[in-house]
Amino acid sequence: MIRVNHLTKKYGATVALDNVSFSVSKGQIAGFLGPNGAGKSTAMNIITGYLSSTSGTVSIDGCDILEQPTEAKKKLGYLPEVPPLYPDMTVNEYLGFIYELKGATQKKEAHFNEICELTGITAVRGRLIKNLSKGYRQRVGIAQTLVGNPPVLILDEPTVGLDPKQIIEVRNLIKKLGRKHTVILSSHILSEVQAICDRIIVLNNGKLVADSTAESLSDKLTDGNSLILKAVGSAGEVQSILNSVKTVKRCSKISEQDGTVEFSVSVSSAGNARSDIFFAFAAKKLPLIEIRRRDYSLEDIFMSLVDNKDKK
Amino acid sequence: MKAIYKRELWACFRSPIGYLFCAIYLFFSGMYFNSVLSVGQSSEFPQIYYGMLNIVLLMLPLLTMRLFSEERKYKTDQILLTSPVNITPLVLGKFLASLTIYTGCTLFTLIYAVVFSFFTSPSWALIIGNIFGAILFGAAFIGVGMFISSMTESQFVAGMGSFSIATIFIILDVIPLVTDNELVVALVNNVSFVGRYKPFTSGILDVSSIVFFVSIAASFIFLTVRVLEKRRWS
What we know:
The complex is a heterodimer of chains A (312) and B (234).
Chain A: E1 2-11, E2 14-24, E3 29-33, H1 40-47, E4 55-60, E5 63-64, H2 69-74, E6 76-79, H3 91-101, H4 108-119, H5 134-146, E7 152-156, H6 164-177, E8 182-187, H7 190-196, E9 199-204, E10 207-213, H8 214-219, E11 222-232, H9 235-244, E12 248-257, E13 260-267, H10 270-283, E14 288-295, H11 298-311
Parallel strand pairs in A: 3-8, 3-9, 6-7, 7-8
Antiparallel strand pairs in A: 1-2, 1-4, 4-5, 9-10, 11-13, 11-14, 12-13
Helix pairs in contact in A: 4-5
Chain B: H1 2-14, H2 16-39, H3 47-64, H4 66-73, H5 77-81, H6 87-108, H7 110-117, H8 124-150, H9 155-172, H10 175-178, H11 182-191, H12 193-201, H13 207-233
Helix pairs in contact in B: 1-2, 1-6, 2-3, 2-6, 3-8, 3-9, 3-12, 6-8, 6-13, 8-9, 8-12, 8-13, 11-12, 12-13
C-alpha cells in the first residue's frame, strides 16, 4: 500500500533522512518510533507530499507522490504534528471545508455523522475550534483525516499532549481505524507503539534502525537468563559465593548500601540457577533478600538498538 | 479552488477585517462623492476613483496580509498542500476572494452614480471604464500583497511589507512633480500604478495599462506559487 524507496532528505548539510526504505501492506498499522529529531515528521511530511525528498521515491497504492500527486493525495488522510485547524471555524464548518477541499463524494451528512461518532466529537460539532480543549482538537484533527474515507492514514504523534484517559481513547480509536485503513503513526512512546501497532519501524538520526513486528520486539523484553539478586553482606563475599555456583556465567555489582549489595547475574538456565544460588547463600549463612528476573524495558531495547547502530 | 475561495471570503467576514475594509472604503469614497457633488459637474465624477487610488493602495494590505501568513501560523498550510489540489488553483482561490471583496466595494460606488443621475446625466461609459480600471489596479496590488504574505509567517510583517510598498508607489508619483528630467518622469509614469491608471480617468481604455495591470497580477500570482513550491524543496 505504501512503498518508500531509498528516501533521503537533506537540509543543507544536515541529513534528516538517510536512505530509508520500507513498505507497509494493506490493513497494517505501522509505528514510527524514534527520539525527537529522528526524522519521523520529516518522513511523514515527505510521504504526504508536503515536503519533497532529496532523493528516493514514495508511492501510495501504486501512485507516485511526485508523478501523480493528485491521485496519491486522494488516498491519504494526514494529521500533522500540530493539528491543522482554523480556530475561527466550528467543527461542522471545518469538516465541510475539508470535504470540499478533498472533493469528497460521500453523502455529506451521513458521512460526517459517522466520522463524528467514531471520533467522539458529536457533542462539540457546533462549537468554535478555538474554544475546544486540546484533546478535542486532536480528535477533530483525526476526524479531518477520515473525510473522504481515504485508505491510508498518516498520523504524526496523535497522542501528544493528551491526558491519560484521552490517550487510551485515542489509542482505541486508532486500533478501530486500523481495521479499515492502512495506518502509519509516529510516537516516541515505545509502549504506545507496542500497544497499537503490528509493525514497528525504528528511526534514529534519520536512519532506519529496526523494522520488525511488535511480537519479535517484545520477545526481547523478557530474558529468563538474567537475574537481579540482593543479599546482606559485603560485595566481596557475595561475589565469591556467586563465583562458586556453576550455573552462574557472569555477575556484576550494581549497587551497595546499608550492608546490602545488589548484583546483576547471568545464568545458563534460569530454573535450577535460582535454587543453586539460594542454597549456596544458605550454606554461607548470608540472607538473600531478593532474586528476580531482570525485565528489559522497551526503553532498554530501544537504547540498545540506537546505541548499537551508532557504534557501527 | 472553490473551497478555498469560499473559505477565504467567509473568513474575511468572520473576522472584523472584511467589515473594516468595506467601511473604510465606503467612508472615503463617500467623502469624495460629497466633494464631487459640491463641485457639481458630471465630468468630475470619475475623480472619486482617481482620488481613491492612494487610499486603496494603503488599504489593500488589510485584505492581503493574512492570506498565506495566517495559514503558516496555524500550520493549516499542511492540510492545503497535502490535499488533492494543485498549488495554482489554491493561490488563485485566495487571490479571487480578495479581489471579490475589493470589487464588491468598488461596484458599490455605482449607487453614487445612480444618485448623481437624478440631478444630471453622468457619462456612464466613463464611469464604467473607471470602475474597470480601478478593479485592474486593485488586482495588481492584491497580487503584490499576496506574494508578500506568502513569504512570512507573521501577518504584521506581511501587512507592513505591503504597506511600505504602497507608500513607495505613492511617493513615486511625487517625483515627476519635482524634476524636469524627462527620462525619470517617463520611467516613473511607466511603473507607477497611479500613473498607469491615468488614461482611465479621461475615458481611454489604454491597452498598455490593461496589459500592465494584468501582467503584474499574473506575475505575482506566479511568484506566489513559486514561493509555496520552493518551500517544499528547501
